[in-house]
Specification:
- By secondary structure, this protein is α/β, with parallel strands linked by helices.
- It folds into two domains: 8-135 and 185-390, Alpha-Beta Barrel (TIM Barrel), CATH 3.20.20; 392-492, Immunoglobulin-like, CATH 2.60.40.
- It is 33% helix and 22% strand.
- The protein contains 19 helices and 22 strands.
- Strands 1-2-5-10-11-12-13-14 form an eight-stranded parallel β-barrel, surrounded by four helices. A six-stranded antiparallel β-sheet has the order 15-16-17-22-19-20. Strands 3-4 form a two-stranded antiparallel sheet.
- α8 (196-209) packs parallel to α10 (241-251) and α16 runs parallel beside α17.
- It is elongated.
Length: 493
């Protein structure tokens, strides 16, 4: 099977998925109850990766904290007005053990799901949460030195960051997991990466996980960088990721690592071995609604861009249907998913869901499907299954003024793809609330002295143009607000 250079990933909240299936079955559903027809559907949609969120074993301690936390509880009640206690399972990131949750069928059911995905050409991605463990993780009793310890003075000064933890051999003050800019997560305990034995133990967890899936999304991966960890905890560890990734790849050479990362540290983590890093900067620029920063973002080196995970929503971000107005959403999607890198989609995105589901919950509210956005994504996903945009050569294109004094060209984002057999695709988006005009010179010398037909893959729009004009002056476009085209080019004598 040919490796896809620009693959597509679909994130699924596993517990919510199975709760919905349980309602259909009339009994608790496990991973091995997921119908083959559903996996067939995901494969037919063109995904290469299925990221199953929250499959690992969580415990009673984190669940109790989730249910008792008043701030979280208000959020849960806003999501589910008919909230029940059993809807709150505890965060899927407060991991007690890196084994598939017993309620999901355990490791055997997870292995079965992976095999069924593989038979359909799908790879399985799971979570790795390196910065912390659940309060009832076995290491709390067995290896308390693996965690960041606190003092009574620190606890008194920062009660939001430290807690007394009950242990069989004596209580200790330990730190909550956190990043340097926010209070700690009270259902977690922070791993001390300045401790060599703790690092080695976490590498051991990674090696175990690597036998259960094809890749990992590493939660808040930048928090383990020595400079970030030191800023947070006042102690500087040796680098973790290069050694950890190397160790895993000695056993599984093609194992995939994707980093959740912010603060413009994407390149740093790519250099440490990550295959993909979140592109939060592009997402933020698209939300701002200004084309120029988006266009400049796409001028970065291609070896950097191919390792970016492009998204419009995920479990941490608001739904795309909330972040983007209905007329903006498709334009943002065309840009996001027609450029190089990993194309990252989220459960509910295609249906236009508006309610974000906390990873503490196992049930989603009922929401109507937005038929218009669903139809748009059906067509877009068809385009993304084209080998040209999966494995072709990509190029950012210049947009030029349509006439002197017309500055609306600055609202365009444009780029092209070339396939291995010379096939061409042109993408152009007017990312603005006003009509815009521009010329886009095409980078295809073979169209010289030829007639060119441009057919939009997203609509019935079709143009015939002179190749010389397209090369010299460019392709003239006059697009309405938030309008877009994805053209294939057919050259005739």
């Amino acid at each position: 099977m040919t490796k896809i250079i620009h693959p597509s990933l679909y994130q699924i909240n596993t517990r919510v998925w199975l709760t919905s299936l349980s309602e259909t079955l009339g009994r608790p559903a496990r991973l091995d109850d997921i119908p083959d027809a559903e996996l067939d559907r995901l494969a037919a949609m063109g995904f290469d990766w299925i990221w199953c969120l929250s499959v690992w074993q969580t415990g009673a301690s984190a669940q109790a904290i989730s249910r008792a936390n008043p701030g979280w509880r208000r959020e849960f009640e806003e999501t589910l007005p008919d909230l029940k206690e059993e809807d709150i399972a505890g965060s899927g990131f407060a991991i007690q053990n890196y084994a598939a949750h017993r309620d999901l069928g355990g490791d055997e059911a997870l292995a079965g799901l992976r095999q069924r995905l593989q038979r359909r050409g799908l790879k399985l991605m799971l979570d790795f949460v390196p910065k912390h463990m659940a309060p009832d993780h076995p290491w709390v009793d067995e290896h308390p030195d693996y965690f960041v310890a606190g003092t009574e003075e620190l606890l008194a000064r920062e009660p939001q960051n430290y807690v007394w933890v009950k242990r069989k051999s004596g209580d200790l003050i330990l730190a909550y997991g956190r990043d340097p800019y926010f209070p700690g997560w009270p259902d977690t305990l922070q791993i001390d990466y300045s401790h060599p034995a703790a690092q080695e133990a976490m590498i051991g967890e990674l090696e175990k996980i690597a036998s259960q899936c094809d890749g990992l999304r590493c939660d808040m991966a930048m928090l383990l960088l020595p400079e970030v960890f030191e800023r947070t905890w006042g102690r500087k560890p040796t680098p973790f990721w290069p050694a950890a990734i190397q160790r895993v790849r000695e056993q599984v050479p093609d194992f995939c690592f994707m980093a959740e990362v912010y603060w413009d540290l994407e390149w740093t983590l790519q250099q440490q071995g990550f295959d993909y890093t979140y592109d939060k900067r592009l997402y933020d620029r698209l939300r701002d609604g200004n084309a120029q920063p988006v266009r400049e973002h796409l001028h970065a080196a291609l070896d950097y861009q191919v390792k970016l995970a492009r998204f419009l929503e995920n479990h941490d971000e608001p739904r795309a249907a909330v972040s983007f107005d209905p007329d903006v959403h498709p334009a943002a999607a065309v840009i996001t998913y027609s450029i190089p890198g990993l194309r990252f989609f989220h459960q509910g995105q295609f249906e236009g869901r508006k309610i974000r589901i906390s990873p503490h919950l196992v049930r989603a509210p009922h929401e109507p499907v937005d038929k218009e956005i669903e139809a748009f994504y059906d067509v877009l996903l068809t385009v993304l299954r084209n080998p040209i945009v999966q494995n072709g050569a990509w190029q950012s294109l210049d947009c030029l003024p349509a006439w002197d004094g017309n500055g609306s060209w600055d609202a365009f984002v444009a780029h092209s793809w070339r396939g291995s057999d010379g096939e061409q695709i042109l993408v152009a988006v007017n990312y603005a609330s006003h009509a815009s005009q521009c010329y886009i010179p095409l980078p295809f010398p073979e169209i010289q002295n030829r007639s060119v037909q441009l057919e939009d893959l997203l609509s019935s729009t079709c143009y015939t143009r002179d190749g010389n004009e397209l090369l010299e002056r460019g392709f003239y476009l006059d697009l309405g607000p938030w309008s877009y085209h994805i053209f294939t080019l057919e050259v005739t004598p």
